[in-house]
Amino acid sequence: MVAASRFMTRDVILLSAASVLAGLVVTGMIASRRNLVGKSKDETEVDKATSLVAALGVKPMFSKRLLELAAFKDRVGHVDVPLGSATGSKEIPNGLGKWVYTQRKRKADGQLKPEEEAALTALGFRWKLEPEELDVEEMIGRLLAYKASKGDMLVPKKYEIDPLLGAWVAMVRRQADPLLNGGVSALPADFRKQLDDIGFAWEPARRCGSNFMTGFRIWSEAKMAGLPTPDEKWCEQQREARSQGKLSEQRISYLNKFGFDWQADGSQSSG
Q1: pLDDT, tens digit, 9 for 90 and up, residues 99-122
Q2: 33 near 132, Cβ under 8 Å?
């Protein structure tokens, strides 16, 4: 009974460890301890992660990846490691992107230990990666940092060093493009001006050359000009793709915003 009681007490402690220990880190208690023994006040993320590993007692394999993640943050300023990290990448250790993805899944499945969650949270780990929910000022800061490094704002959609920045820039371009929003830009005018003022690149270095996007631009431009459908064969391909579940919701949305006729006989204007 005594042993069982001890295990129960340990479990209760661990359940509250994430919020308590993350708070300790945020308030600088661990950093203060390091300073007392002669360490520099300007700690690196690796220094902080090393303290976390010692304070939280996480397992060696988790600790190894946590330190790799901290080193990545020291290099690029964030911990948003892309899932598809290239093998042999100079910036990203092999397998780190997959490990980061796995931690998000473990949390969603209720399998992430409190001390592990606390360690990741203290490093600034994002549990959800939705471009629409990102802080605008933070992303503009990242964009300006990209410009300072590269000399332009032509951020690739799949930018290995900062995949969230690439996704955010692509999202902004989609919102601004009238052809993808029923003929009218969906981007607020004041936000557009804010981005214009810093030299935002509204056109990517390379446009999507897929059969869908090539045909869609031709079709939507004709719709905006009030011209007849230029390629009925392309339209029929989209109807067929949708009926087979092969047309993404995003592409269906692009078409619906222009009142696409999903019935070949013209009896239905939208899906």
Answers
A1: 988 998 899 899 999 999 999 999
A2: no
Radius of gyration of the chain (CA): 25
Model confidence band, residue 14 (pLDDT cutoffs 50, 70, 90): very low
Instruction: Look at residue 208 in the predicted model and tell me its pLDDT.
Output: 66
How far apart (Å, rounded) are the C-alpha atoms in residues 45 and 89?
Answer: 20
Residue 162 contacts residue 81 (beta carbons within 8 Å): no
pLDDT tens, position by position, 138-181: 899 999 999 999 999 999 887 877 888 988 999 999 999 998 89
Q: How far is CA 159 from the centre of its chain?
A: 11
